[in-house]
Amino acid sequence: MRESFVLEPGHNPIDLVPVTPESLPGWLEGQPARLRAWVEATGFKGKPDSLCLLPDEHGRVQCVLAGMDRDAPVWALAGAACRLSPGIYRLDSDRDADWRTQASIGWGLGAYRFERYKASDESPPALYLPEDVDADEVGRMVDATALVRDLINTPSQDMMPEHLAEAARMLADAHGAKFSTVEGDALLDENYPCIHAVGRASHHAPRKVELTWGRKAHPRVTLVGKGVCFDSGGLDIKSSGGMRHMKKDMGGAAHVLGVAQLIMAAKLPVRLRVLIGAVENAISGDAFRPGDVLASRKGLSIEIENTDAEGRLVLCDLLTEACEGRDKPDLLVDFATLTGAARVAVGTEIAACFTDDDTLYRDLEDAARTLGDPVWRLPLHGPYRSGLDSRIADIANCGSGPYGGAITAALFLKEFVEPDVPWIHFDVMAWNTRDRPGRPKGGEAMGMRAMFEVIRGRFA
Length: 460
Known about the structure:
The structure is a single chain. The protein is of the alpha/beta class. The chain folds into two domains: 2-133, Leucine Aminopeptidase, subunit E, domain 1, CATH 3.40.220.10; 140-459, Aminopeptidase (3-Layer(aba) Sandwich), CATH 3.40.630.10. Helices cover 33% and strands 20% of the residues. It has helices at residues 24-29, 33-42, 78-81, 97-110, 135-153, 161-175, 186-189, 193-199, 240-243, 251-265, 311-322, 340-346, 358-371, 405-414, 448-459, and strands at residues 5-6, 14-19, 51-55, 61-67, 88-91, 126-128, 178-183, 207-213, 220-231, 271-281, 293-294, 302-303, 331-336, 351-354, 375-377, 395-396, 423-427, 431-432, 442-443. The chain has an eight-stranded mixed β-sheet, sandwiched between helices. Helix 4 (97-110) runs parallel beside helix 5 (135-153) and helix 10 runs parallel beside helix 15 (448-459). The chain starts with a strand and ends with a helix.
């Protein structure tokens, strides 16, 4: 996405002026009569996501007014980035450097396109980044978000477990990180029985993917991601409508790769570990069945109530591993497209999260509000744990009732996290269901920027 920015203004860049309905009259007072008349004639009022192109004496665009929401700086220019003609634009604002850095990030998010399968040679408009804007921060955030979106938007035919593993390997190579995988039946030998069970029905071999980076003496941050590259629902098969966007079910893995890229690009002083379970939940004669009892890495037996509750099975082996030995993490974060119940609770545009750490959540909430990256905490309500009771195993993989599904899923995961490990679980949609400025329909990073800010604040 770096083509959306330039570090030199070039010849006669076009000024881009963010305004609100309240600030527009003051801006107009200092302008020539012809420009005031033009704005009045167009009916431009400075409403969010509205544009007004102002001509010079020769009919060429000399300035663009961009209506914005004053409470969300990151989206101030996002709509302009996807609607303006090619050219170089310069932000004309007296706001501080932090505000303009966030607005520049929003420009890059608004300029995003997924064009892997489309022929396009159109040059995007470019925003000039002056010296007082943190160009490195802008580039990191835009590139990490593009990585997440690209991975999720890629059709499953080109984003199976081997492709997801390759994306992690390429990221590791780019930053000098260590990369490893455990594949196929070797998962049983290495004690990842749940990952193997979920993925064994596919001819795309399941695998555990691991990336490590940073000095061992630094604080330990472990990221765990659900990488279900396509989810048919298994033998509890989804409807055709429910299956339509299941290429996004590896969105949790995409998120942790995005956070990892941010950490490594910023060179945070942490010992980073990324664990991903990459599988396809397919249907064949070897598929796991409702009523089966699976072993887990932790030693807990799991009765399968529903094969479409597979993501938590992929995660449980990895969460167990993350907490093993003397190198327990100082922070454990997992991302998953886990439940429809979370979408019912908070809708499609907020990242639901769960944690017992009040300080951790307050830090996350503050970052989310500042960055325009909304999150909302749902309760780890202990009494609902009884909904996971099994008569023949230690735990069931989901409850049999229709209520509190996101909570019981989080409580299931909690069984595999050691009590002394600070942990937060994200249950995200990872998909925009509508077009908004800077947030086009399709794959999306949700809670990623806010979580990175918390990690940076704690460990940098």
